[in-house]
Design a protein that fits this description.
Helices cover 49% and strands 15% of the residues. The chain has 338 residues and is of the alpha/beta class.
Length: 338
């Protein structure tokens, strides 16, 4: 599947006013792509477009709520009306409620599903006709490691991300069956230092946190730009996510025990916060239209992501590891026979 170079692409990024979406939009624009940014926050989009234009990039903004299909469709329509085509669509909009399940109302649970799952389904529905019209392209969904392993206190978010993973798998195979050269990718970030934890609703009595360690949003943006040029099934961002994925495959009960030990305390800070504090669940809030969150002191580098973006190096490293283990075992066996 041959995807266009970034500097030849028209890219729509949904959920672009802050965090991963904002960083991704700037990276696409710096690489020469024409960018359409969308979110509920009109002010956040305005400052983003101004920032992109300040370094010579090209971008327009569309205010939209992803829980409304017609508003999502308008993003795709305006992209093609402005630039004549659509090459890559990035679904990054998200919200959340961090609370015990019994404290979450039906309306709150439904809203998280509407944004985090249906918003991405609507994005695919809006983008696919134009990607097919172009004859190729990339559909990129920002999922989460919670699509592989749910977390306590985040039942709506985890449910939405698990549903998203199921939707992506079904859609990918349908497109393959129809022989459309359209790449469908799931990006699965670990805990990322963005304003997400400032913006979501909490019923813990304190400001919530992701389970440390954190990674920079730039790592996720780099993965998104990579899969926009290289057809990729999924991409886990962050070494901890890769370890969690392996542990979940080997022993879910072991991960249960780990989360019992760290997840409840790990998602709480010492900063009091009322459940009535401003949040972005039903309405946008404009005070966090930036890339980084408040947990830079807990941010660490990721060593393995670069291998996923360099398959030759990755398989070379795996081969060396296999030969090294085989050599060790062979030497151990010979010594045991003596």
């Amino acid at each position: 599947m041959q995807l266009k170079s970034i500097n030849q692409q028209v890219v729509a990024i949904v959920g672009a006013s802050s965090g991963i979406g904002r960083e991704t939009a700037m990276k696409f624009a710096r690489r020469g792509a024409k960018v359409v940014v969308a979110a509920r926050s009109e002010l956040g989009l305005k400052t983003l477009v101004e920032e992109i234009q300040s370094f010579g990039g090209e971008a327009i903004a569309v205010v939209a709520d992803v829980s409304d299909f017609e508003q999502v469709k308008a993003i795709a329509d305006k992209t093609v009306a402005k630039y004549g085509r659509l090459d890559t669509w990035v679904n990054a909009a998200a919200t959340g409620i961090i609370a015990p399940f019994e404290k979450i109302t039906p309306e709150e649970f439904q809203r998280v599903i509407d944004v985090n799952l249906m918003g991405q389904v609507y994005g695919a529905m809006a983008a696919l006709p134009y990607l097919k019209q172009e004859g190729r392209g990339a559909l990129i969904h920002i999922s989460s490691m919670e699509g592989r392993r749910s977390l306590p206190l985040q039942s709506p978010y985890s449910a939405a991300k698990h549903g998203l993973e199921g939707f992506i798998e079904a859609l990918r195979v349908e497109l393959q069956h129809e022989k459309w050269p359209i790449s469908v990718t799931s990006i699965l970030p670990s805990t990322i230092n963005t304003p997400f934890y400032n913006k979501v609703r909490t019923k813990l009595g304190v400001k919530p946190s992701g389970i440390p360690p954190y990674y920079d949003a730039s790592l996720v943006a780099d993965a998104i730009l990579y899969v926009a040029e290289h057809s990729t099934r999924d991409f886990i961002v962050g070494d901890v996510g890769k370890v969690l994925d392996l542990a979940q495959r080997i022993s879910p009960s072991l991960v249960d025990s780990l989360l019992l030990a760290i997840a409840f305390r790990g998602q709480r800070t010492n900063e009091p916060k009322s459940e009535d504090a401003p949040n972005n669940v039903f309405e946008p809030i404009n005070s966090y239209d930036r890339v980084e969150g408040d947990f830079g002191n807990l941010t660490i580098p990721s060593l393995l992501d670069s291998l996923d973006m360099n398959p030759a190096l990755k398989w070379g490293a795996i081969a060396l590891a296999v030969f090294g283990i085989a050599g060790f075992l062979g030497g151990w066996s010979n010594n045991s026979d003596v």
